[in-house]
Specification:
This protein is mainly alpha-helical. It has three helices and no strands.
Length: 84
């Protein structure tokens, strides 16, 4: 049973780091400083490009993996104590 906990803890950490990275890779949508910096490097487009759509999909997949692994760990160890 300990190997199951290790697998889901690794999935939880990797998907959490993946979500942080992929959310930070999204382009700014506002009129703040990030939009000023991004507009000088990229051309302004009205629709989302294929790269943005792929980033959205990857971010959603990371979020789903994160939630599923979190729920599985909550079911396996509801008290939060791992006895080896």
């Amino acid at each position: 049973m300990l190997w199951l906990v290790i697998v889901f803890l690794v999935l939880l950490v990797l998907s959490g780091v993946g979500m942080i990275v992929f959310i930070l890779m999204h382009s700014g949508k506002g009129t703040g400083i990030s939009d000023m910096i991004a507009s000088s490097m990229y051309s302004s487009q009205t629709g989302t490009s294929i790269i943005e759509k792929n980033l959205d999909r990857i971010t959603i997949i990371c979020a789903i993996v994160f939630m599923v692994s979190l729920l599985v760990l909550m079911v396996i160890y509801p008290q939060g104590v791992i006895n080896s």
